[in-house]
Amino acid sequence: MKNILLFAYTNTNLGDDLFIYILCNRYPQHKFYLVSYGDYKDKLVDIPNLEIIDMSSQFDRKLNRLLRKYNQKERAYYYKRKNEMDLSIYIGGSIFVENNEWMEFSEIFKTRKINNKPYFVLGANFGPFSNIQFLNTYKVIFKNVDDICFRDSYSYNLFKGIKNVRKASDIIFQYKSDNLKNVSINDQKIVSISVIQPSFREHLKDMDTLYYDKIIEVAKYYVKMGYKIELISFCENEGDFNAAHIIYKNLQEILNDDINNVNIFNYNGNNMIHILSILFNSEIIYATRLHSMILGWLFGKKVLPLIYSDKMLNIITDCKFEGDYLDIRHMDTSSNVIRQLGNKNKLQNINYYKCDSANHFKYLDIILNNDYN
Predict the structure, then answer these.
(1) Judging by beta carbons within 10 Å of its beta carbon (0-12, 13-18, 19+), is residue 307 exposed, middle or buried?
(2) Keywords in UniProt for this one (predicted)?
(3) pLDDT of amino acid 39
(4) What pLDDT is stored for residue 70 in this prediction?
(5) CA–CA distance, 131 with 164 (Å, rounded to integer)
(6) Distances (CA, A) of 141 to 138, 145, 148, 161
(7) Is the distance from CB of 12 to CB of 268 less than 8 angstroms?
(8) pLDDT under 50 in the chain at which residues?
(9) Within the chain, which residue ranges are assigned CATH 3.40.50.11720?
């Protein structure tokens, strides 16, 4: 058994927690230690080979700020655990984003490598960014990472001259849905809508009202057509749950008794299977969250992507998706969100992307002596 130090986005985000689940489930004979800066003490409790190194307390946060003044990145307890590890993995999607703290993060990122032990970065995309210094900084840093596997061609092409940089389809394509097939299917047809709070993102700060109005249009239309609507919050801490409540409250005033056909489901860190089962039992998915789009494809659903960032568009391009989509960054009041979705809105050649996504673990399988199928 190997001890593996794991870094991820610990903000109770369904997509990122699903990364962690897939990784730990692939290597059940090894122990993972997740460094958490969010409150994860009672999250992901169904993963038996995962232990949380909790760094979320007020004491830890204050101490870390103090240590950073002396160029120490983490507290002594963390370093002690770090030295017990055989390798480290950073798994996640939008890890490398240019913001006001990117230089500090780039220094912390380098400390994730444990001496001369292997260091893997899996599942990421690069950007958005505008500063060439940001790109060049990571071109240097990535040379000291043992294996980096991006999830899109755009990111890969920025670094393809570095020999340890690779590309594979998104890790979520590796999710095995077998344990969802026994979930009872309601006779009523379902449309699932993954919602966001646009203003959580600077480039969408003025889009809340328009976005909510368009989601309300969708819900009204499908309720009238006899569907049940499931408003799904992937990440409460990023405003999804709040957005769902605002949309629901407005629908109450419009639908009256038909509001009984609308539900809200919020991911809380321990109800992953329940949320995935809702998506699995849906006929149609309006996907604002990237991983609601990929899960919809994986489950063979008709998906209308509602694009809020280039990372979604890049994956749509890589996957040769032939269906309709709507870029909400360019949406206005005249934009049509009611689309007649057919088989083109199902991802074709899904088995290729399922197989290709396993390549994220190509070299990790070797180190962990894994015969996975």
Answers:
(1) buried
(2) Transferase
(3) 82
(4) 46
(5) 24
(6) 5, 7, 11, 14
(7) yes
(8) 70-71, 76, 373
(9) 3-174+354-367
Q: How far is CA 115 from CA 49, 68, 74, 111, 235, in A?
A: 24, 20, 15, 9, 34
Crossing angle (nearest 10°) for helices 102-111 and 132-141? 0
Q: Establish whether the linkage from the previous residue to 128 is cis, with ω within 30° of 0.
A: yes
Q: What is the largest CA-CA distance in the chain?
A: 63
CATH for 3-174+354-367 (3.40.50.720, 3.40.50.300, 3.40.50.10840, 3.40.50.11720) = 3.40.50.11720
Give the tens place of pLDDT for each residue, 230-257: 999 999 999 999 999 999 999 999 999 9
The length of the chain in residues reads 373
Residue 119 and residue 14 in contact, taking contact as beta carbons nearer than 8 Å: no
| 3 state SS of 153 | helix
Please name which of 185, 372, 179 lies closest in space to residue 281, comparing C-alpha atoms.
Answer: 185
Is the CATH number of domain 177-351 3.40.50?
Answer: yes
Please state, in angstroms and as integers, the Cα–Cα distance from residue 66 to each residue in 80, 101, 137, following that order. 18, 17, 25
Question: Tokens 């993972």 — which residue?
Answer: 32
Cα torsion 233, 235, 238, 239 to 10°: value is 20
